[in-house]
Design brief:
CATH architecture of the largest domain: 2-Layer Sandwich
Distance between the termini: 31 Å
Helix content: 40-55%
Number of strands: 10
Oligomer: single chain
């Protein structure tokens, strides 16, 4: 494959993304391949001397974690953000702008190619490429190819930001609509509950019959309020899913449960779990309900949640070693099990519930992303 075909393929792959972070990750991985570099990074400045985002390719997760906090925009890193000109050298350590040190775990690097990303007439970020594979330095052709790619990168980043802002506005509008529905449909009924309860309490010593009627009214109003609230909640996407996706939202929820319930809950995520909006809310709600059941009913010492993504196959599994139960008898009595089943059916998923008294419980969901 020649360089023009490789460039075309990279641009097409990135065009399918609409969120900034995945776009940046694909950009830096594509730049590394296009230039034939051992390491690559893309940096987006925060305007305060640091990077808002600094994403690398060619390094392991363990190595990235060992490097600590994001670098500052100084030296050659900063120089790329101050000019629209590319920078190239055979040894980064001999450049006068090199600060002379790296973090202890930082790999040694020599040849360097830096290309700014220009958007709307200003430097919006930069590609940083080091250690040309199979040669002592990056070539004129490498530089020309990455400069062309940087123009596409600017458009991709702009489009992703516009898409995210549009989505954020949609979320705000939807939340405002839900707030109005909650106020109109639920708040008024709850206000009626309070008034009826106060009336019932005042009548207890004078007229038990009238007090009983007021308490019956409390029951009816509370039931109506619960029904209204369920009808609103069933359409509400967890805010974290909109911003961060399924895997990150599950991780936050598990962390919250660990702290609030003071229970050990294992979490394992395998694969690149970028799940479509068509299914992610229902998958999250099923996980949420399964965890709730395990914490509330099982008496388990061990609870484990796993999310595995392989191609378009997504598998969610919640396992506990608790008391277990008779699945056939419980389905007709436990609303949570019915809700999970209905959610799975709605997204065309397979839901397996394996449990028996004294044998723990496993909830497994398999669905195409």
């Amino acid at each position: 494959m020649d360089s023009s075909e490789a460039l075309s393929d990279a641009v097409l792959a990135i065009a399918a993304e609409h969120a900034v972070e995945p776009v940046l990750q694909k950009l830096v991985e594509a730049a590394r391949v296009l230039a034939g570099a051992r390491y690559a990074a893309i940096g987006v400045p925060d305007g305060e001397g640091g990077f808002a985002q600094f994403i690398t390719a060619g390094m392991s997760d363990e190595l990235i974690a060992s490097l600590g906090e994001l670098p500052r925009t100084h030296g050659l890193l900063g120089a790329m953000l101050e000019s629209d000109a590319a920078q190239r050298t055979t040894d980064i350590r001999e450049d006068p702008r090199f600060r002379g040190w790296w973090p202890r775990a930082h790999p040694s690097m020599s040849s360097f190619l830096g290309v700014p990303i220009i958007a709307r007439g200003a430097v919006a970020g930069a590609f940083y490429l080091t250690d040309k594979l199979g040669a002592a330095a990056f070539s004129d052709d490498d530089q020309a190819l990455i400069e062309t790619f940087a123009a596409h990168a600017a458009l991709a980043i702009d489009n992703a930001r516009l898409h995210e802002r549009s989505r954020e506005l949609s979320i705000v509008e939807e939340r405002n609509r839900l707030a109005r529905e909650l106020h109109d449909a639920v708040t008024q009924k709850l206000f009626g509950v309070v008034l009826a309860a106060e009336s019932g309490a005042a009548l207890l010593e004078r007229d038990l019959g009238a007090a009983g009627a007021q308490l019956e009214l409390v029951r009816e109003l509370a039931g109506e309020a619960m029904d209204e609230l369920r009808s609103v909640i069933v359409h509400l996407r967890p805010p974290a899913i909109e911003a961060e996706g399924l895997a990150a939202t599950l991780a936050k929820h598990v962390d919250l449960l660990r702290r609030s319930q003071r229970r050990a809950i294992e979490l394992v995520v395998e694969g690149d779990c970028v799940v479509s909006q068509r299914i992610e809310t229902d998958v999250f709600r099923i996980a949420q309900e399964a965890l709730h059941n395990a914490l509330r009913h099982s008496g388990a010492e061990r609870i484990a949640l796993s999310l595995s993504c392989d191609g378009d196959r997504v598998e969610l599994c919640v396992v506990d070693d608790g008391a277990g139960f008779d699945v056939g008898a419980a389905r007709s009595r436990r609303l949570g099990l019915t809700t999970m089943t209905e959610r799975a059916r709605a997204i065309g998923a397979e839901l397996e519930l394996d449990s028996a008294p004294g044998a723990g419980t496993t909830v497994r969901l398999v669905v195409s992303a």
